[in-house]
Recover the amino acids of this structure.
């Protein structure tokens, strides 16, 4: 089992402003996350997973994958990928799923089996920009 970092969150999951927003539409799963880094810069990102064949959220007390804290990782040759291939080789070959994992402190451990993913950086505001935004908003 090899683990590869795919995306490191620009914020800490311990500093999220809201619970992650999870949307499931057909075979697409999206997770939107917004929060602050150590310098109080605000970011919002959206993970989009395509051709999802399995999605789970579990408590970290049952274990997490090393390196997945605030980081989306890909797990090659995981036990679950091997199980899925054994269950239905034809469908497995068609979808060619990859095993992605992400642990968000206080929110859970997510595992997504999907063909591919992308990340949208929806918002990034420095401390100064946040003050200006708030100033113009009121």
């Amino acid at each position: 089992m090899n683990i590869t970092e795919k995306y490191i969150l620009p914020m800490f999951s311990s500093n999220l402003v809201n619970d992650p927003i999870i949307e499931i539409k057909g075979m697409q799963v999206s997770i939107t996350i917004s929060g602050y880094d150590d310098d109080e810069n605000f970011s919002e990102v959206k993970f989009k997973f395509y051709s999802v064949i399995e999605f789970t959220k579990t408590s970290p007390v049952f274990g997490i994958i090393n390196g997945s804290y605030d980081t989306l990782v890909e797990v090659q040759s995981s036990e679950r990928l091997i199980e899925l291939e054994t269950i239905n080789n034809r469908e497995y070959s068609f979808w060619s799923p990859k095993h992605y994992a992400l642990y968000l402190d206080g929110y859970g451990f997510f595992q997504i089996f999907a063909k591919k993913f992308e990340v949208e950086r929806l918002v990034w505001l420095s401390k100064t920009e946040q003050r200006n935004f708030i100033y113009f908003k009121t």
Q: What stands out?
A: Strands lie at 2-8, 21-25, 28-36, 42-50, 54-58, 71-76, 98-104, 108-114, 116-125.
